[in-house]
Amino acid sequence: MSDIIGHYIAGQIQAPEGSRTGPIFNPSTGEEIARCAYGDQATMDQAVQVATAAAQTWSKTSHATRIAVMYKLRELMIAATDELAEVIGREHGKTIADAKGEIGRAIEGIEFATNEPHVTKGEFSVNVGGGIDVFSMRVPVGVVGCITPFNFPIMVPMVMMGMAIAVGNAIVWKPSEKVPGAAMILARLLKEAGLPDGVFNIVHGDKAVVDALLEHPGIAAVSFVGSTGVGEYVYQKGTANNKRVASFTGGKNHMVVMPDADLDAAAAAFVSAGFGSASQRCMAISLLLPVGEETAVKLRELVIEKIKALHIGPYNDPKADFGAVVSAQSKDAVEKAIAEAIDAGAELVIDGRGIQIPGHANGYYIGPTLFDHVTMDMTFYKEEIFGPARGIMRAASLDEAIAITNAHDYGNGSVIFTRDGKSAHRFMNEVEAGMIGVNVPVPLPVSYFNFGGLRRSKFGDGHLYGPDAARFYTKFKTVSQRWPDAAAAPTDVSLAFNPVSDKS
Predict the structure, then answer these.
(1) Same domain, 216 and 282
(2) Is the per-residue pLDDT at 497 higher than 80?
(3) Which of these is catalytic: 80, 156, 199, 282?
(4) Are 380 and 407 members of one domain?
């Protein structure tokens, strides 16, 4: 019988007897390796009750104490990198090297969380009138619900929850049921770092748990990362239940290549940014958009050459450039998208279907797949393909390339490769995307800058990284304060509504 991963509430792993469970697979082999307990309304009620009580104490803890926990967590995360990478690779399918890169970005998020006192400090004005001082302050919202995706089992949760915890909130986290192992390691590390029991809680599950979280009156704010359809649902349902919601969703990221660009470097960038982690990244480059026919012809050949050099294998193969997709369902969805693109008239340049990995016949593998002559009316252009199937489009000018980029529903990331400053300047100012790269294929910002897309790539007024993350997890208060002179004469009653003055 497979091991069952239980919930984590009040600093303890809950025995999952009698609960619904779901399978956890090793995508590299296709075998079931464990099962994950699925919570219900009662589980959510218990977690929120515990978190609410813990938040009352944790919110009053000094900045210095909270920061000390973050510093200790950083040390523990570094020490546990190999352990975390192994679990992430085994449950997700990404290579060990890729998993370690993810962990590094998670640690970067923790480092920024230690700056929360600076980000959340308020403003002060002395004697605005009548001896009144006015100042602002940010305080924790209370209990934060976090819903995170399978593709980054530790980076997204940590940059999300690190700041939420650092500013004084308690957490109820619903990780992806496909990859729960890293979540349980993180729970252990937070406890070792000195985080009080109850501040951090995990409730595993499916849509039933998501709905319980979104509907629960004890949760003040919800942060979500995942697909656009689910993200829009989370935003609408969460706000309908009077919650603050920041929902970060899908992308169809365009890479424009100008004729003056270093084409070899551009080709390498497209292949690495397009196929890394089996293309299961919201910041992955989906569409290559060369400007001019000559550019397209040259770039296509360079891309084909570099794709053919890629090595596909299990997560623990040190030679593998990328591994399997996360599930059999994901594999089926990507292969369906490939078939639909062929039917729609796109030119299939490289077909990654049917790839065989020796000793891993049941793994969920798709080799790198490349289409050319993709057009805007094709489903392959319109929808995010969460797997290693990428496309080439054609543009006659920068104007057309910008128009194609802005015509898409998504506005997560867009990049341009060029040696011309004017072209780059136009691109960054005119393209409607939240994150823009200039000769940078994956414009994922460092943790002290805000992360978030535009259009249907983000719902809600919030950001995942940066100063805005701290602001999202806090609420704003403005205080007007006066200390009267005890020896002063009694104040006359006035019902007039007057501006503040020295006489008020």
Answers:
(1) no
(2) no
(3) 282
(4) yes
